[in-house]
Structure to design on (91 residues):
């Protein structure tokens, strides 16, 4: 992937999230697409605020459900997210 976010933005690859119903059925990724709030940082902008956070490519993050812009490159979905839409780092 050759995508470089500008300013205080990051490119996140949403992680698939399997959901289990009360009866034990696993819902496939496409059924629960809107509930995916976790992702992997693929690229980080050079903005002043985002660089102070010490984020690194490869970290797992939680992001706002409705934040960012969706983009598809080579069949893979990504989100370009503003700093304000990044909520937490998963350690």
């Amino acid at each position: 992937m050759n995508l470089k976010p500008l300013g205080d933005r990051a490119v996140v690859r949403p992680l698939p999230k399997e959901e289990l119903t009360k009866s034990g059925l696993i819902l496939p990724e496409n059924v629960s697409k809107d509930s995916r709030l976790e992702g992997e940082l693929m690229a980080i902008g050079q903005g002043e605020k985002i660089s102070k956070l010490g984020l690194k490519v490869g970290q797992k993050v939680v992001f706002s459900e409705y934040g960012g812009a969706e983009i598809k490159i080579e069949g893979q979905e990504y989100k370009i997210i503003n700093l304000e839409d990044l909520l937490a780092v998963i350690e």
Summary: The chain has one domain: 9-90.
